[in-house]
Structure formats: structure tokens, C-alpha cells
Write a structure and sequence with these properties.
Layout: H1 3-19, H2 24-35, H3 46-50, H4 62-68, H5 78-87, H6 93-128, H7 133-142, H8 149-199, H9 206-249
Helix pairs in contact: 6-9, 7-9, 8-9
Length: 257
């Protein structure tokens, strides 16, 4: 084989090795296998101790994603608004206020819809638990290098603190999920009231519609804050989880945050 072709084949092989999927479960298993070969320390059930750290909420299911996040996605506001605008005088003060509210609500709702979709995707990915490319690189670089006694002992001494950090993330995450679960009922009620008011809109009922839009906007603001809280928890947790993954792979300086 010509040297040039050999280099291409070697590059493809290396790329496939680095980019191929590695799960957190596989990483824990690799650590477990290596740690068993370190005879100088007291052995533990590493898989049992470490696996729970790499999922923020083990009971998170597809039905729970649908129940919470998809309940905040609204796609049917535009048509009743357009119908309403065709029926009311353009110079009516209440109508102008409603138009301003609707523009804000529609713009904000696009952001809510997008964030709900992003969170749903992230949480579905979390159940698969494949680790990101930079962490895969660290894992591949050390996959076949034995762990030394000092490093395994560091991990052994850190496990209880790692579980404390994980518990804090999990508690905050579940708390925000519970808040979102309650908020979705109010949000659904406010959305239904607005749609009903738009479908029954007339000049004499504009003040009622204006009030319904104001309540929906307030509910929407609360929902957005909750979703951003959940997103921030996931961002921080994923950063910590990847630090733990590097720590298990043998990278120094990745103990805990």
C-alpha cells in the first residue's frame, strides 16, 4: 500500500475510534475493570457506587417529557388573532393594547416552544447517556492505560462528596420539575381563556380579551423563568458529570467542582 493511502486509512481509523459513541455506563465499566487490578486498595462495588452519578433523574421517561414540556408548546394562536384583527376597529384603544400584547406573547411563545423542544431533546439524550466528543478523547487517550493506586484512592475518598453534589443537583431539578408541573395547569387554563376570548371577540368584549391576554403573558413569564431554571441546572450538571467522567478516565484536576 502506498504511504499516502496508508496515512488516509490510519486517519480514518483514528477518527472512528475517537468519534464512536461511548456511554457513561461504558466509562464506569472501564474504570471498574481497571480498579479491580489495583490490589493495594480495598475493593468496592464501583458500578453500583458510580453509575447513579451519571443520570440526574433515573425516573425521567418519555411520558414525563410529554406531560411537562410539551404542555407549554402552543402552535394555534396566530389564526384566532388574525381573525380578531379583521373584525375590530384599528383605532380602538383596547384593540391597540391587545395587538401589542399579542405581538409580545407570540414572540415570547416562539422562545418557549424552542426551549421546550431543546430541553426535551437534552433529556432524551440524557437517557441514552453518550458522552460528548471532548470527553471521549480523554477516555480514548487513557482507555488502555492502567490506573495507579493514588488515583483510585482519590476517587474512593471522593465518592461520598460526589454523591452529595449529585443529590443537590437532583433535588433542585425535581423541585423545578414539580413547579413546572403545577404551572402547566395554570398556563393551559390561561391559554384556553385567551383562545375562547378571541373566538368570541367583539368590540363590546375587548376589555375581557385584554385581561385574558395580560394573564396569559404573566403566566408565560413564569413558565419561561421555570424553563430557564431547569436549563441552567442541566448545563451545570452536565459540566459536573463530564468532569467526573474525565476524573474516572484518569485525568488529574477533574476531582469535583
Amino acid at each position: 500500500m502506498k504511504p499516502f493511502l496508508l496515512l488516509i486509512c490510519l486517519a480514518i481509523f483514528i477518527f472512528n475510534e475517537v468519534s464512536s459513541e461511548v456511554t457513561y455506563g461504558k466509562l464506569v465499566q472501564t474504570f471498574n475493570d481497571k480498579a479491580k487490578n489495583v490490589k493495594e486498595i480495598k475493593q468496592a462495588n464501583w458500578s453500583k457506587e458510580l453509575t447513579p452519578l451519571f443520570t440526574i433523574y433515573e425516573k425521567f421517561t418519555e411520558s414525563l417529557i410529554e406531560k411537562i414540556f410539551h404542555s407549554f408548546i402552543i402552535v394555534n394562536l396566530q389564526s384566532p388573532i388574525d381573525n380578531f384583527l379583521e373584525q375590530v376597529p384599528e383605532n380602538n384603544a383596547d384593540a391597540l393594547a391587545i395587538v401589542a400584547y399579542t405581538r409580545t406573547v407570540l414572540m415570547n411563545q416562539n422562545q418557549v416552544n424552542n426551549l421546550c423542544s431543546e430541553l426535551s431533546s437534552k433529556l432524551r439524550h440524557d437517557t441514552v447517556s453518550s458522552i460528548p466528543p471532548p470527553v471521549v478523547v480523554e477516555y480514548r487517550n487513557r482507555e488502555h492505560i492502567p490506573l495507579n493506586q493514588t488515583h483510585v484512592k482519590k476517587i474512593q475518598q471522593s465518592i461520598s462528596y460526589m454523591h452529595k453534589i449529585h443529590k443537590d443537583f437532583k433535588t433542585k431539578f425535581i423541585d423545578e420539575l414539580n413547579k413546572a408541573d403545577v404551572a402547566k395547569e395554570v398556563f393551559a387554563s390561561e391559554t384556553g381563556a385567551v383562545l375562547s376570548a378571541f373566538n368570541d371577540a367583539s368590540t363590546s368584549k375587548l376589555s375581557k380579551l385584554k385581561g385574558a391576554m395580560l394573564h396569559l403573558k404573566q403566566s408565560q413569564d413564569r413558565v419561561w423563568k421555570l424553563l430557564k431554571n431547569i436549563e441552567n441546572i442541566l448545563i451545570k450538571y452536565n459540566a459536573q458529570r463530564n468532569a467526573w467522567a474525565n476524573f474516572l478516565s484518569g485525568v488529574e484536576g477533574y476531582l469535583v467542582s
